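For this section, I looked closely at a protein sequence along with its fold in token form, which I now present.
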Amino acid sequence: MKTIQPHELAIPVIDETKPHELFQGATLKLRIDQLEKDLDSIVLDPTSESDHKLYGSINRKIGILFASIDRAGKAIVDPLNKQIKVTNDQRKAAKERAVAIRRRFMSPRDAYDDEVLQHNQQIAKAFELMHMGHKSVGEYKAATVGDWDTLIATIEALELTAELFGDRLKEAQSLQGESLEMNRARRAKFVEDEAALEAGRAALKVQQDAEAAKRHAERVAAKEKAKGDAAPAQPKEVAKSSAGLTAPSRAASVKNVIYAHLINYGMPKERAVKFINAIEAGQINHLKIVE
């Protein structure tokens, strides 16, 4: 590599009044490339007092050069940055106005679309209630007669108007009648099933009480027998009811209790009798009247 002496080093001087010429094409790159090449080729001895000073002098000149380059570039970009800020501020304002203008322009159609949506949702909700309302009864808790009454009253209260249902009015009216009929039937079936369950529970309670009474009587009889075995024989008396008649059978008592409960649940007398006969005949699952 060819070496150069310190006095041969030429550090470029920037004309800051003509910044565009400096940043035109590869001008700046070529100047910096040449400076770097010259600095790599210079011969200096840092142990020499004079060369030691030259290091500092040359370094200051290099700093002045790059500071001049930065100022020249800043003279170009500062006005551009100001214009960019103005432009960006106007762009932001234009975007915000665009949102407001478009929203105001579309508000009549948006209001109409929302009204249509609510209208259609109201129709769909009414049809859903009439079609599937019964599935909500007992969905989250044990169903009651009151739940069925509420459902039926809600369906009855639906206002089926031409203004709301339009060309689906006849369809809605027909469905309302069918829904009321079916849900009233479901209510009646629910009442009957609940009555049957309650009757079954009552019958079971009577049977359990009778069995408990029988066991108690057997224990008392066993104690009396034990006492009798240890004491002289006494005359026996025939047990009679307070009216002097034989007490009714346990099965008859069970049927009487079931009958009373069915009547209390609102079941007609004739139907209650048939229901009890069906139990006695073994036609009702899981229910049986035994002696």
In short: Residues 233-247 have pLDDT under 50 and may be disordered.
